[in-house]
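Thread: Newbie trying to understand structure tokens

Hi all, I'm a second-year student working on a class project, and my supervisor (Dr. K.) asked me to get a predicted structure for one chain before our next meeting. I've only ever worked with sequences, so writing a 3D structure as a token string is new to me. If someone could post the tokens and maybe explain what I'm looking at, I'd be very grateful. Here's the chain:
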Amino acid sequence: MLKPSLPVFLITTFALGTLSFAEGHRKVHQPKLTPQNSNTTQGLIAVSPVNPRVVWASGRGGTFVLTTNGGKTWKAGVVPGAEALQFRDVQGVSEKVAYLQSIGGNPTDFRIYKTVDGGATWTMQFQNQNPGAFYDCFAFWTPRRGISHSDSVNGVFPDLRIR
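---
Reply by user tm_fold:
Sure, no problem. This is what the structure looks like when written as tokens:
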């Protein structure tokens, strides 16, 4: 038969008391939702906040939107040549630099675009040639280094390094 020792009893009592105190005094933060006018009728799918002022978002119809004043106003645009594509992911780097990743009905519709002038112009960085690949998301660990991941193709997951 086990005999509880005094130190174990005190530690357990202290831990449970601390948890109970913390539960009773925890602040609950409710999000504050603010209606936004994105200046587009297209559905937006992805969002990438750079800082409290700069946020990029993207969606259907080759559309992207950008705010540089914390959501007071939004600039909407369409990437030329991508009007039929859906931008599934966006990575904002600054108010000037961002990446967009698209999907579509054809293998070559899976693309990555980059802007360095706040969306005034876009340069295609990648266009898929693999008929089985489905690149639908990417992630960045620095402004110039990222990875895009495809669904499995013949048991292999194609990855792209973005530099």
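A couple of things are worth pointing out once you decode it. The first strand starts at residue 44 and ends at 49. The chain has one domain: 44-162. Feel free to ask follow-ups in this thread.
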